[in-house]
Write a structure and sequence with these properties.
Blueprint lengths: L11 H12 L5 H13 L7 H16 L14 H4 L10 H13 L4 H9 L6 H13 L2
């Protein structure tokens, strides 16, 4: 996982997935977001970091559409969202995003293990970013 910062879009996997979402037909975008969230939420075995990275980016998109959600401004996020576009997401997307983030932060997650190892003492900006998304999603 090529990572350059701790935000939801700040790694190669998320940036590539966002590019694919940007290129996708408008009608297929909500399904792609749901698929990314479902893959993470439904994983029973060791959760691959790439699946987690895509799900975190997807959860950030869901969170951005919630009251109190932060607008998406990352240059690595899909252009249509940075330009003020929205996703027409199913009503259960928020709960699915929360489940995916909970799964990522649980044990048996490569993303969690990698960021835990990279943490400097009690400071962990990647964990803080995920917790911030979850806070918005559960408000």
């Amino acid at each position: 996982m090529g990572t350059w910062d701790s935000g939801p879009f700040d790694n190669d996997t998320a940036a590539d997935w966002c590019g694919d979402l940007d290129d996708a037909d408008i009608a297929k975008r909500p399904g792609l977001v749901r698929e990314a969230l479902s893959r993470a939420a439904g994983e029973d075995g060791y959760l691959d970091a790439d699946i987690a990275c895509e799900a975190i980016a997807a959860a950030a998109m869901v969170a951005a559409q919630q009251p109190g959600g932060q607008p998406i401004t990352s240059p690595y996020a899909p252009d249509f969202l940075r330009d003020g576009g929205r996703l027409d997401l199913p009503s259960d997307s928020t709960a699915l995003a929360v489940r995916s983030l909970d799964r990522i932060m649980a044990g048996n997650s490569e993303w969690h293990d990698l960021w835990q190892d990279a943490a400097a003492g009690d400071v962990n900006p990647a964990f803080d970013a995920v917790h911030g998304l979850r806070t918005v999603l559960t408000a």
